[in-house]
Amino acid sequence: MRQDERGPFVQALRRAREAAYEPGDYVEQESFMRAGEIRTLARRAGVGPGVSVLDLCCGVAGPGRFLARELGCRYLGVDSSASAVGIARERADGLPCRFEVAQVPPLPSGTFDVVLLLETLLAFPDKQALVQEVAGALPAGGRFAFTLEEGQPLTGTERARMPDADTVWLTPLHELQELLAGAGLAVRSNEDVSRSHQAVAESLTAAFAADATAIAAMIGRRALDDLLAAHRLWSGWLATGRVRKLALVAERQP
Predict the structure, then answer these.
(1) Is residue 1 in some structural domain?
(2) Which of 12, 58, 214, 252 stands 20 to 30 A from 184 (CA)?
(3) Domain containing 167: what range?
């Protein structure tokens, strides 16, 4: 079963995800970020009442709906998965949220105060094209808030071990900083969240394993095995420093 058929995965993994996070830290995110980290990054980017936010690769938009509810922003979420966007729309009832099904890049037309990209920058092999698009969607003073899986590209052996390795393109920090600077974006905030994300990856792995029978019944054993393998790799890489997780805010220069 493909993960872009999001409904079965959302249903199958919900109980384990709820168990893996501390109370209040699960807001239907499909990542290692805690709710507090999502809120902190958004506030550093100036998200608040009336601020326009474009959330790229939003998935079912748990973080986006959380921010719209907590901070009162005007929110547009974009994802290539029609099933994920369908779930997001159903669960955003009454919130100032809109959604589009689209590939990224390109980005939707217009400008936004904040562009958000959580836990999916690594899926873009051509980060320069993405960063240029983001810069073009921001006015002077607009902010790009995102997380980065920082490290050297995967070796052949690592790529062979990682399920869906075609979505895992690590980038050294200095290379991304050069791309940002070339697009007129200056880093204003950079927090290392590696330890926190390693703990969440480990907790999710344990929760998925504990609920394996029920999960496999809904999505199949192969999909569960791939999920466990990927989480174990991320947990190990974050624990050893092979990969660092960074939460950054960059500002569009005049």
Answers:
(1) no
(2) 58
(3) 6-252
